[in-house]
Amino acid sequence: MEPQRLDGGVAGTYTPSLSRSPTLSRAFRCALLCAALCTVLAGGCEDDLRVPYIPPTLANWPQPYRGVPRLKVHIFNTGYLRVPEALVLRGGSLTRKRDLAVPAVLIEHPHQGLVLFNTGLNPKAKDTAHAGEWLTAVLGVEVLPGKDLTSQMRDAGLKAEAVRWIILSNLRSDRAGELESFPNARVVVTKVEHEYAQPGRPGYDTSTFDDGRTSTPA
Question: Would you say the pTM of this structure is higher than 0.70?
Answer without folding.
Answer: no
